[in-house]
């Protein structure tokens, strides 16, 4: 690579960091807000890259996010609020938990922009009954 990391865009820096992590051939990949600060198009492209790599390399991905990217790449989710796990399970099951905070996250004003697409993916993933802890 001819460029030093400083002149690279946020998306390129994330991809370089991901490449560095994958060079070690991990079984588990930890991502901490990898799309933070990216524009929506770049964030979506990064999510698709993670999804593709997860399937191709059979990775387990722990993805910490405050954004709706969990709908694009997560099969199972754990919701945290305030500093404790309040629900764990498949995306659709957790989204339907009887918790005020979870309800706001998945059914509040901002969620209405993202949730229909997310709900369709969650339904497609529902191949077996999994236990949900709320």
Automatic annotation (TrEMBL):
Entry coiled-coil feature ranges: none
Name of the molecule in the record: ABC transporter ATP-binding protein
Domain (ABC transporter): give its ranges: 4-36
Q: Which InterPro entries match?
A: ABC_transporter-like_ATP-bd (IPR003439), P-loop_NTPase (IPR027417)
> Keywords assigned by UniProt?
ATP-binding, Nucleotide-binding, Transport
State a single Pfam family of this protein: ABC_tran
A GO MF annotation of the entry reads: ATP hydrolysis activity
- The keyword Nucleotide-binding is annotated on this UniProt entry: yes
């Amino acid at each position: 690579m001819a460029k030093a990391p400083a002149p690279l865009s946020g998306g390129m820096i994330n991809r370089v960091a991901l490449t560095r992590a994958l060079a070690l051939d991990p079984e588990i990949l930890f991502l901490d807000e990898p799309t933070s600060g990216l524009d929506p198009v770049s964030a979506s492209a990064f999510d698709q890259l993670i999804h593709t790599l997860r399937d191709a390399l059979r990775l387990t991905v722990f993805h910490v996010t405050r954004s709706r990217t969990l709908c694009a790449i997560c099969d199972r989710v754990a919701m945290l609020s305030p500093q404790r796990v309040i629900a764990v399970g498949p995306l659709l099951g957790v989204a339907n938990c009887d918790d005020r905070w979870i309800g706001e996250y998945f059914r509040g004003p901002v969620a209405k922009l993202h949730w229909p697409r997310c709900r369709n993916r969650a339904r497609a993933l529902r191949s077996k009954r999994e236990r949900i802890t709320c």
